[in-house]
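Researcher: Predict the fold of Tripartite tricarboxylate transporter substrate binding protein.
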Amino acid sequence: MLSRRSALALPALLLPAAASAQDWAPSRSIRIIVPFTAGGATDVTARIVSERMGALLGQSVVVDNRPGAGGNLGTDMVAKADPDGHTLLLATIGTASINQFLYPRLPWNPQTDLASIGLINNVTNAVVVHPSVRANTLQELLELAKREPGKLNYGTPGNGTSGHMCGEFLKFRTGVDIGHVPYRGTGALIPDLLAGRIEVAVDNLPSYIPHIREGRVRILAVTSRERWFAVPETPTVGQSGVPDFEAVAWFGMQAPARTPRPALDRLTAVLRETCADPAVVARFREIGAEPSFLDGPGFDRYIAAENQKWQEVVRRANVRLE
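Model: Structure tokens for Tripartite tricarboxylate transporter substrate binding protein follow.
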């Protein structure tokens, strides 16, 4: 147990760390690199947090979309950027966890080249189809795929995204033959789905909610363990005949690994305040995302747990990308 003198001394001992975090302030605009195209859940998450973070930091925070290679191009940009707190990454389950097991050679090291600022939110994936597809449930879609192997294709925002791995895991678990078509982000995938040029999409739910409500696409299942609050009438994959299936996407913020600790601490504090803001929480839930802030160390532990899960999924699905 602490002595009374030690306990009284604790606040003074903590003052230098707190002061150093408050002393750091950005000297110019901050860029949040989004490694996917505009319009997807990654992009929307970045735009929701950027305005409030800018107000708290006293500098503009701009979103810079740098898509390509399943998020690898934008992530590599941040890993190699000046570590001064002015270039940040909107990290995803793909860039922070899955891609390292899919790609034999990454231009950066996910374990050492990026520093965690915090986890922001999570979303379920959804299995969505064009109205022309002769399936009203996930089970009917799987039966259709078994009757006509190789005929159906499913689109995702790109190789290594949670949508891609959900689709491959579903194929592995059910034995169906459905081709994978990677797009350069959700913004490129949705127009093809709406036009019927791709029959099925497996992707983060938020960007599809307006089209689901308008009847332009049909949602068959969500990939979370429980039904998702934004579409409570939609069954889970587990409830649709594939037990113990769960794959929730998540989004967080990272910086170059050598970013000074005072900058990381200040950015974490600002992100924490942003994610607790009632207006930001309401906006997240409006698009179908669940706020789930964790600080830097908490985010590191979360990523470590996800790494164990997705390394096994990639191994069992036998997927490798160049």
